[in-house]
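Notebook entry, structure prediction.
Reason for the run: the old model in the group folder had no record of what sequence produced it. Starting over properly, with the input documented here first.
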Amino acid sequence: MSRAFIKEDADAEQVLVTARPPLPEGVQNLVTPSGLAALEAELATLRAEAVHLAAQPSESSGSNAVRRLAALDEEIPALEDRLRSAVLVPKPPAGTREVVLGATVVVQDDAPGSRPSSFKVVGVDEADPFEGLVAFTAPAAAALLGRKVGDTVSFVSGDGSEKRQKLLEVRYD
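New structure, fully documented this time:
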């Protein structure tokens, strides 16, 4: 099946493509070694899926396959662009006490009765706050970059409130 027909058929129906998380203007696409590996694995998976779908006979592929191929035509180049812009931040030497990408930090709000919490500072594509993976562009993580144990940082949280946190621990797993 010609790619032109796939695109034309898909244009007749709405094709949803999940957007990659945005990077603020002028900010480098910093990635951890595991984040880079995940992006590369994702690209390989998407390319394999596209090859598989394109190889199917048109009468058996159906409209879902046509829409998926159209989506892959947008997702693959976007992911390739993200990979080309990736700046690998290697794991720092043992004993590093400063927060850089890849650090797991333990912080405590200065609010009375607050408990320590932890998260890992990662690239935007690797971020998953529900898993404790916070993008380096997030206010809490950005405030901690370059800081050392014992430092206190201030930042405006997503809800607009000002927060102060003390950095209690930095480790690199």
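Summary: Residues 58-85 form the longest helix (28 residues).
The old model has been moved to the deprecated folder.
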